[in-house]
Amino acid sequence: MSTSLAPDFAGRITRPVGPLVIDIAGVTKLYKMGTEIIHALRGVSVEIRRNEYLAIMGPSGSGKSTLMNMLGCLDTPTAGRYEFTGKNVAHMEDDELADIRNREIGFVFQTFNLLPRSTALANVELPLIYAGLPPSVRLERAAQTLHNVGLGERMMHKPNELSGGQRQRVAIARALVNNPSIILADEPTGNLDSKTGVEIMALFEQLYEQGNTIIVVTHEEDIARHARRIVRLRDGLIESDGPVV
Amino acid sequence: MTRLLYELTESFRIAFAQIRANKMRSALTALGVIIGIVAVTLMGTAIRGIDIGFERSLAMLGDDVLYVQKWPWHNVEDWWNYQNRPPLLIDQCEELNRIIAATPNSLLEVAVPMAQRGSAVKVGENQVSGVAIFGTTAQYSRLMSVDFQEGRFFNETESTSGRQVCVLGADVGEALFPSRSALDQTVLIKGQPFTVIGVLAKQGSFLGLFSFDAQVLMPINAFRKYYGIRNGGTSLRVKVTDKTRLIEASDELIGAMRRVRGQLPGDRDNFSINQQQAFKEQLDPVKSMIALAGLFITGLSLFVGAIGIMNITFVSVKERTKEIGTRKALGARRRTILLQFLIEAVSICLIGGFVGLSFTYTICLILEHNVPSLPVEFSANLVVVSMAVSVITGILSGFMPAWGASRLDPVVALRYE
Asked: ipTM of the assembly?
């Protein structure tokens, strides 16, 4: 956890980046909407390294969501190269992609997407079940992760017994529990009030400082400014890509 | 492999949570399966009951007895060839017995003549009509598979001298002498007095067609005196020594009968050898048809139940599209999603099957208690089969929706509201 870098203007530290995690080059994505063909991405190239804290921004229709789905291995490109930690995922089958998502990617959704009838603990345990870990290991790791996001006391609560901020913490714990290469957060504060939103962004900051790689997709400038680098999309192309100033 | 096990455990947990959360819906869906399972298992029980009744009836014929008759027990096209066969006569039976006695290691034990006529039996004002009157010899007691309620069978002397004695079937005895012993009482048969020397134990009816308890047995010489021996009115029953060698015994009997009836080599047999096995072969296809039709019709109700399951699984998949998307994002494979919904469908079916089977069991108990003559049989087999049917129903009906769920595009599923 050592860092020799000087804090920036806001007193934040920026960790040195590690090896390449995501390597996207010349990616396009076409959708058919009835008879109309929509060019969601028109040739996007982006490299993301370990220990980065990246925000993807853009107005609706910019291809932001498509790029996020691509980064999260939920979708594959129509053309172009996509390598995830050196593995070519552009042409993988459904189940191979599922395994990548399980091991390498932690999703945080705007609407939390918790299983309503399962406890916080069971929700966090879910990715570990899909990873094939035995119950004892699962329980221990899920409990530890919930503890780390400050929900050690509420493990046996169901989502409807938790506040919005707490629900998002459960979702973040679920994203973290399998030690993924990247955390992919889609409008993580979109359904929260601003005070809770600030708390959640503070949690992301903390996670980043602990060595996690975080990608936040947002349309809010304030949220994007928490990151160290912002990629802006417009009309399926990258408009700008650079550090937060 | 262990991963699959963990996924299965999780799927069962989710399935039961889901059923608990939608109690009414699950109960109504299960009801369809319950009705189907009750219908099918009751039908199965009935078929099994018919089988048992059939076996019991056949046992009344005796599995070690060959019947020598003018007519075979199966339908014949060329009835005229049988019509003109010479009758079977009592002295032919005596001749047959002589041959049997003279044959070393004969597979045949003894032959008895049986003459039959329908008649009424009277005691004072009491009259029972439609009784089967049999005339036979004392040897018949060796062929009987039924016990005596009281008294005995007539002996050799009574038989040959044609003494007016008789043995009553259980129902005849019960009807003529309610709540008192029939022994040594006199009954009128065709206006002639006969002394009752025995009453048979209850046997039941043969395939529900005619009752073995509505019969009266008397010495054939007495029978002959009052009824005469009509053409073809007599038949022979032959007991075999070893019922496992029935076919050889039958062959021996054919040879002996041909000698008795003075048939030349090359002549066609002018008599038929019948046995319960042939009867069984005759009736088995009919039985299978009834069983098949019954199972098909009741199977339809189970099919309707299965459609209910399919429907509810489709609804469940639709409702939880977003959850499917989330699970896929978290690393659930197609197989995982498929299993999850299949297990939900199978769980409802299993619950339905279990409840349905309990109903069937209760109904069987009630029937057994109130209608003892109805042969119902609730077997362990039925439990296994109906549970297997439940599981298969669940899998078949749940497969289509579950398959659809497993192939959902995670992007589309996540966006679903």
From this structure: 0.93
